[in-house]
């Protein structure tokens, strides 16, 4: 072999037809057959071995290349999102192509008209119809376009007027007639001799000639001075204060780093309430820097005042009570300037170039002066649907894994769900956000004792429309639904992408167990309905989570900008420590973060199997054995098998009359809504437990001027008999008429029986917010909520109709979740 190899190599260089060399090819043509046969046999054998070796080597190299590049490409590309339908184009041309299909991209929404749904929010088409109906009745509205004066009558709010529950239940469960759709409309009537605010019910929608307009309030019932703030009024306030800003021009330049109005400064209003009685209208204002695009609440300045602005006659309005560094009040801007020029008051001088840094400090953007965290330049973990969505949307009706419900909501109150069912069982008729209250405390002439009730401004469409940020609010594969709100400024309906729906992976066990005989568990997946909204400086995110075991988790989150107050280190109220005061911490060079709360109020109309329910309070007790056993029996002595006379036990109480409930962790209770007439297999009343997960409680006293309007915040839960006219737990006008509120929750507590009745739970939860430097400039979300949980509702764990993980050791009893083929995450945007 060695000679052969060498000879072959040599002759390959010299040429196989060289006459001086007897190459193997020439030898095979020799006339001597024996020698030729021997030599040819050796040559052919060696050539065969060489060919086999070469082919094997080539195949090995190709397999190695394929394995290396294939696994590398799979790791690099699997799970990424591309525009194409296959991965082929993303793999280098030198590598073998891997045909990995894009995951199914089925749209769960059939885009049925909202108008066909019983509970759907009003559409822009319906709002336009309502505005035309009202415009034709000139005695109700006097303008059909942007209003320019408070002396005009125009539409302020518009949203769905939900059907009567009795009619809806007949339609949903007993083949009754479908209720017609109606709109509820708020009209600010400035054109009539005695201005007021009116509410109307307009409809049926879709029948323009036959539509009726039904007054829901009496003329004068809602005083004009209790009206909700709007841009028409703000424009009038600006007209009054523009003259005063010119008077204050030198003071502002010297104090605030050369700032001028309106180029560098703006006026912030709506620091409510606007008075202690319905007839008053006093609007406090404060000056702030223009550092970010919307109203900057991070850079308020120590200059404030008040405008007396009742009625519609702007010529009679005037400003008064001016303060500078909390020094005042001065009757007019001129009086303040005179005191300033005569050095009669303390002064502030912001450093030069201070204004040039405001936007950088306030605008939420990455700090490029800092290095990225390790691996932050790599994409984070993602979820997607390997076989497409498992939920469906028909108009506003959602179905997923045994759950079904309708999505709704309105401009003022926010998101709502109706007709919630699980595995065909009625769970709740209505689950709806009603209001959000905030009570601030700070040492500021322009901001002290601020109270907000956000329904007054419009939770789901007010000054700022809502829009979904994909991959921030919701994953890219989420389905997005539109809602509409009425713009009082432009007198037209505006669409917005405001609700997203998706299935989420909890990346945890819903339940599990591991033992020597078997391993079993189920992965926790749930459906999410998420609604982000903007109310001024705060963004709220409301979320409903539907679980495979029948639980329903409702929560609210607060994020966005905190409202700040000016930090004055020479303020005599601060004391020796220059980092905090009685109302909060210093969070930046010239700002503090004042304490406040966010209290969310929800209407929860549970129907456990049907509308006849009772409310049980189960007391979690500890005491002696005798007291424990006497809760349900008539024993006279303690059984001997108790090793000591101390135990935990439950004490059951059925609430007889309407009442408010407060959480007390020293006296813990379980709240359960039960159906007295429906029992599970074991004879136990079927029910749902309400689990408040609140972190806050109301601390202001009953004597506080706003406590009646805020009465829903006194309780963590209030139980009342359902009445059609008691639609909400608050009135949007009550904070503007604190002396005589007409729509607060306490009015519903009239001692009616709630046993075996259609009852409503008004659930309140919230957070206490003490802003710190980590909340500046942007507040990480804070959350709270409540859980609705099956409580003897089923006979057993209700998830055994789902595929699960099970491996029984030593047997063939094995089960896993449905398998799926590897696919590329689709670039989904429904």
UniProtKB/TrEMBL annotation:
PTMs per UniProt: Topaquinone (TPQ) is generated by copper-dependent autoxidation of a specific tyrosyl residue.
InterPro entries linked to this entry: Cu_Am_Ox_Cu-bd, Cu_amine_oxidase, Cu_amine_oxidase_C, Cu_amine_oxidase_C_sf, Cu_amine_oxidase_N-reg
Cofactor descriptive note: Contains 1 topaquinone per subunit.
Domain Copper amine oxidase catalytic: start-end pairs: 383-799
Gene Ontology MF term list: copper ion binding; primary methylamine oxidase activity; quinone binding
Transmembrane segment boundaries: 47-68
Keyword entries, A-Z: Copper, Membrane, Metal-binding, Oxidoreductase, TPQ, Transmembrane, Transmembrane helix
Cellular compartments per GO CC: plasma membrane
SUPFAM superfamilies documented for this protein: Amine oxidase catalytic domain, Amine oxidase N-terminal region
Keyword Membrane in record: yes
Entry EC number(s): 1.4.3.-
Residues annotated with 2',4',5'-topaquinone modification: 538
Active site per database record: 454 (proton acceptor), 538 (schiff-base intermediate with substrate)
Cofactors required: Cu cation
Enzyme class: oxidoreductase
Coiled coil: none
Gene Ontology terms describing biological process: amine metabolic process
Protein family per UniProt: Belongs to the copper/topaquinone oxidase family.
Entries under PANTHER family matching the protein: AMINE OXIDASE (PTHR10638:SF20), COPPER AMINE OXIDASE (PTHR10638)
Name the UniProt record assigns to this protein: Amine oxidase
Source organism of the structure: Potamilus streckersoni
